[in-house]
Amino acid sequence: MTERAGRPEAAQYLTVAAEVAAALDEGRPVVALESTIITHGMPFPRNLETAQAVEGDIRAAGAVPATIAVLEGRIRVGLDEAALEALAKRAGVAKVSRADLAAVLNSGGAGSTTVAATMIAADLAGIRVFATGGIGGVHRGAELNFDVSADLQELARTRLAVVCAGAKVILDLPKTLEVLETLGVPVIGFGCDTLPAFYSRDGGLALTLRCDNAAEVAALMATQWDLGLNSGMVVANPIPAADEIPAAAMEEKIAQALGEADAQSIQGKDVTPFLLQRLEALTAGASLDANVALVRNNARLAAAIAVAYAEGRAP
Ligand code: PSU
Ligand code: MN
After folding, report:
1. Atom in ligand 1 nearest the alpha carbon of residue 116
2. Of the residues 55, 95, 154, 168, which is catalytic?
């Protein structure tokens, strides 16, 4: 019996790719991937190359990748090559979070899923491990503008281990960590004792939970959910040392990008994509290279965790 059986009325909106469905039915490891990073996080063709490389990394580590997006009014869990390419090239795709999911399905249109919406879809499909770059979080200035990503609420309510390089450093990381603590979301340093700061390995914020291998993470997932603590967890995986950009170098560019966003009154869903694009330009592409490296690093770890979790659940 798969976990997909848990919500039969959702099945009419879900198309699970045959390879993904077979793996889930047989209890084999699957890793969910988001699509906002493809449509809003990276420019073409790097977005497509990265999405393909990430899927390859997951396969090489013994798991099945399931990139998630909304296409023609269906939540697609697992995209074939043609669908992935079409999505990466398509302009004007809606960025879909929890609040938008039902509307985009009913519209019959297309949407790329954020961390929050990807978690919802993965949960409906019965996938328990998810790899991304960085989760959304509390934006700088949130004490005035209340800009807090819906990703944090989702982590509080949906059972997935989300492997990321911390929260994007454009955010207010101390406040993001405080909110995760308030929401009761475990934040696990993978081989580290501080929250990774996306482009750099160490943001200087202490974490209380640490795992040093995939089996330890899988064991925590099992215990957390056996207890009925039905929240997600953050597996914070530092960018490889060879790919990191020193935090001080980045901070100056972030300040500039934030100033531009403010001057141009960029708001709501547009804030994160705007900042990522400006950082790419201001660092002459270095931030994009680092982003690609950390996403692939997270995909490899997520696959190892999915393998360990599937082993732990095998009869
Ligand atoms: N991390 C990246 N690139 C991205 C995102 C995260 O490296 O494009 C996306 C994710 O989909 C995340 C979203 O869920 O940004 C958060 O957007 P917001 O702050 O509007 O909730
Ligand atoms: Mn926001």
Report:
1. 14
2. 168
Per-residue pLDDT of 114-141, as tens digits, reads 999 999 999 999 999 999 999 999 999 9
Q: Which residue has the tokens 């694009």?
A: 277
DSSP 227: T
Q: Select from 40, 7, 21, 27 the least CA-distant residue to 78.
A: 21
pTM of the model: 0.96
177-213 pLDDT, tens digit each: 999 999 999 999 999 999 999 999 998 999 999 999 9
Q: Are 244 and 200 in contact (CB under 8 A)?
A: yes
- Confirm if 25 and 123 have CB atoms less than 8 A apart: no
> What is the rounded CA–CA span in Å between residue 169 and residue 150?
17
Amino acid at residue number 132: T
Query: How is residue 302 annotated by DSSP?
Result: H
Residue with CA at minimum distance from ligand 1 atom 10? 114
Q: How far is the CA of 183 from the centre of ligand 2 (A)?
A: 18
Q: Please report the domains of the chain, with CATH numbers, ordered by start residue.
A: 8-254+284-313 (3.40.1790.10)
